[in-house]
Amino acid sequence: LLLVLARAAEWPFLGILALVPTTFAGILWEMPGFKPGRWWGELIFATPLYLLYVAYPFVLGRRSGKRVEPYLAAALAGLPYLLLARHALLAGGLKGIIGLLPLGEAALMALLMVRLLRLEPPGQRSLDRLALVGGAALAFITVAVPMQLDREWITIAWALLGASLAWLYRKVPHRGLLA
Asked: Do the beta carbons of residue 27 and residue 83 sit within 8 Å?
């Protein structure tokens, strides 16, 4: 409802504020009597809520104008989802594939990046949004590395991610990426 109100009332900050009750609901769903045999229930509850935030900028499309808030809400929604889904997957005994979780989130951010690139012509693109979404995708990949790999593979993977960030900065020269 807050996402609908954010669009209808032209109060884009409500999309970000909506993360608070959504995250709280996910935590409450997990807390009272969580049983390891029902780990999939957490995923069934949390996944549609997360996908709602990812779909929000897609649904708005050009109506979002140059606003960053819908994309920020989508990127920020990945944090509580990562924690809730990780907890569920570990409870389900799926530690061996846990790295796929943040990689899936990175793939969704990459889809948002493609959407942004198609929405705006090259000379009129919002660097803030591109940097936010691209940086979020790389951040999720960065989280996937230690979740899935160990020892020297972490060093190699993070070196490749550093190179990826440098490449992204050359394409999207935004100070936030440099920081």
From this structure: no
